[in-house]
Design a protein that fits this description.
homodimer; alpha/beta; Carbamate kinase; VC0802-like; eight-stranded mixed sheet; four-stranded mixed sheet; 12 helices; 20 strands; about 35% helix; AKii-LysC-BS (chains A, B); aspartate kinase activity (chains A, B); ACT-like_dom_sf (chains A, B); ACT_Aspartokinase (chains A, B); transferase (chains A, B)
Chain lengths: ~425, ~425
């Protein structure tokens, strides 16, 4: 008997009809002889509606109370899902994050899981019941308060439960068929990836792929949890995210592709601090000031200093929403930093090419630069990891860059991918 | 420093504007130097909306899951109320029934409070915070599950907290100005009662007065909790429900009125089992059968048996909703019970006159019967307690009966009462 953890997002349980459809799938998995644990998000727009209510009551809601408020969302979806399954004749019990033993830090809105003690979930399984667990939420032993895990929290709940229970697989249901070589809305010839290593998935998620949340992928990799990303609208196999330590699910002999996928990100801006004195410690000063704004710096590029002036340019990318704060903070320190100019550019896009085969394959970056050059696409910034190359281009050239690279690295499929509405979150 | 428990029902927190109004009142009570604990119901129609959702998912929702679902309602209202108060600069913390120590039996949907351990509420007060507690909900130690208290549950939560914390008063906020001598929609000259003893309030609530729930009044009487029923729309004093052991709040010398109030009930039906053999044990047989249907029998009347037939009629009243079940159950046993006829009458109303002064005052029933006789109102059933006389009349004569008795017992006010929309629940 296998133990399967299934995660359903808000769009999969948006209304009574969707809940019944999801319940049916869960019951089928149980009837096939598996033990089933389900992590579920709040219904459709519930979270946004609760946030609107909070905003109507007070301008800056207290984080503790906001968590108390938002966790009502999963309480509703999980109870409805459990009663629907029970109505189909299969025993089911719902558990809040606290009841399911999701022990977290006390940071409201972005709590981290510190321990998982799913004793009641295990008991429910032992009694033959399906356990329905509220995603996104936990409980802090220190503050004795209800917490939430922040964005992508329900994926993380599912993965953490799978790890703690020693599940055979954690199925992440979404509204797309799996992980694609790139966004099918940009490249209709994008192919569904049958299997991808956790480290490649991590690079893709970090570079902007939206289907799986970075944190959940990290958790899965750290605990060796196999993920299966698949559509809640079909019975087709999706994408297996496997632990490279345990090898490819189809056997060791499968050769790793040089490039597995291409991720894109349009929600960043580039800041260029121009004419910075090329003296030790200047870069540190700049990024200390940026760090104080809590902006999340992604790529950093420093040009070679011009010999005649002994000054250099430092460019970096940050999320669009942090732009104002970062620019204000740097302007306020212009005299200390002694820079000559400050540029802010929100018309950029990032394209990241990821593949574990890059490690053993030479010439990938050359191939990438040539493909973009031949398509007349200028590269403004470059950053690389062992298995990833990211480039920054003009925003309006992003789609073209992705198409060119998708073809250049032989990722194009013969058929066009089915694109569902929604975002998969 | 006084400790005040305040209860706000769903209509008082129906939207963001109402929540802000309620928050303002709570903050004023705190700023006046009191410790404040608040019990709050779910917003407006939330509970009904959740019930509709459940019904759309499955025909007979599992009680455990239904409780899990419904308790999301107070979680939303209490979190919004707490964050609104915090936004006004006063510390506030919300607590679920479980966090507030509302320990109940495990009966889902109608759990009874078995213990109240409000340690966290007390801590919050000691830190100078206002504690906002979810009404209607609790936690069973036996099943480790979330429970709900059933109808009127939020009143009961407030009273139980007041008892456990030794509060000076438990204020029940509603959309009417207090307890009236009778329903002002029937008798515009109804007077607001300044003070009423708990035993009188209990009789009125049991006889159909809707402002306070019977169970909360019972709990308050048993634990000596003083209630103050007042409007959330005005600052006027409402009605004090006092412990008769401790005496009238205005001093012992106040003479108890003979009649304090008149309650009405239109949601009952009368069943008459005709021609029952007048033999020992027949009535017991009948009511054993009725008890098996779980119908709540209210009044019972047995006529003297006719000497020639040695048969008698037994009439009783039951809630309208139980009618079908009771009639079917009796018909099924017609041969065993040997009755001659079975009548069902849903066009009846009950009028109950309540007053602690009845104990020491003679002639109250004579006065009542005469007043109704002179108004041409026939009495079909009578039942009495030490401080109450209830009569059953035709439903279409109920309003007239109430007006006649209100005048006969000198309850009429010189001015007309203000009637708000809504029901006060």
């Amino acid at each position: 008997m296998a133990l399967i953890v299934q995660k359903f997002g808000g769009s999969s349980v948006a209304d009574a009809e969707s809940i019944k459809r999801v319940a049916k799938r869960i019951v089928e998995t149980r009837r096939a002889g598996n033990e089933v644990v389900v992590a579920v998000s709040a219904m459709g727009d519930t979270t946004d509606e609760l946030l609107d209510l909070a905003a109507a009551c007070t301008p800056i809601p207290a984080p503790r109370e906001l968590d108390m408020l938002l966790t009502a969302g999963e309480r509703i979806s999980m109870a409805l899902l459990a009663m629907t399954i029970k109505g189909m004749g299969i025993e089911a019990l719902s558990f809040t994050g606290s009841q399911a033993g999701m022990i977290t830090t006390a940071e409201h809105g972005s709590a981290k899981i510190v321990d998982v003690t799913p004793g009641r979930v295990r008991e429910a399984l032992d009694q033959g019941a399906i356990a329905i667990v509220a995603g996104f939420q936990g409980f802090s032993r220190d503050s004795r308060d209800i917490t939430t895990l922040g964005r992508g929290g329900s994926d993380t709940t599912a993965v953490a439960l799978a790890a703690a229970l020693g599940a055979d697989v954690c199925e992440i249901y979404t509204d797309v068929d799996g992980i694609f070589t790139t966004d099918p809305r940009i490249v209709p010839q994008a192919r569904k990836i049958d299997a991808i290593s956790a480290e490649e998935m991590l690079e893709l998620a970090a570079a902007g792929a939206k289907v799986l949340h970075l944190r959940a992928v990290e958790y899965a990799r750290r605990h060796g949890v196999a993920l299966h990303v698949r559509s809640s609208f079909s019975d087709e196999q999706g994408t297996i995210v496997y632990d490279p330590q345990k090898g490819h699910p189809k056997g060791e002999q499968v050769e790793e592709p040089v490039i597995t996928g291409i991720a894109t990100e349009k929600s960043e801006a580039k800041v260029t601090v121009g004419g910075v004195p090329d003296a030790p410690g200047k870069a540190a000063q700049i990024f200390e000031i940026v760090a104080k704004t809590h902006a999340n710096v992604d790529m950093i590029v420093q040009n070679v200093s011009a010999a005649d002036t002994n000054r250099t340019d430092i460019s970096f990318t940050i999320p669009l929403g942090d732009g104002r704060r970062v620019i204000d903070a740097l302007e306020a320190e212009r005299e200390t930093l002694e820079f000559e100019s400050l540029q802010y550019d929100d018309q950029i896009a990032k394209v990241a090419v990821v593949g574990a085969g890059m490690r053993t394959s030479t010439g990938v970056s050359a191939q990438l630069f040539r493909a973009l050059y031949e398509a007349d696409i200028n590269i403004e910034m470059i950053s690389t990891s062992e298995i990833r190359i990211s480039v920054v281009t003009r925003a309006d050239l992003m789609d073209k860059a992705v198409r060119v690279l998708h073809t250049a690295f032989g990722l194009d499929s013969d058929t066009e991918a089915t694109v569902y509405a929604g975002t998969g979150r």
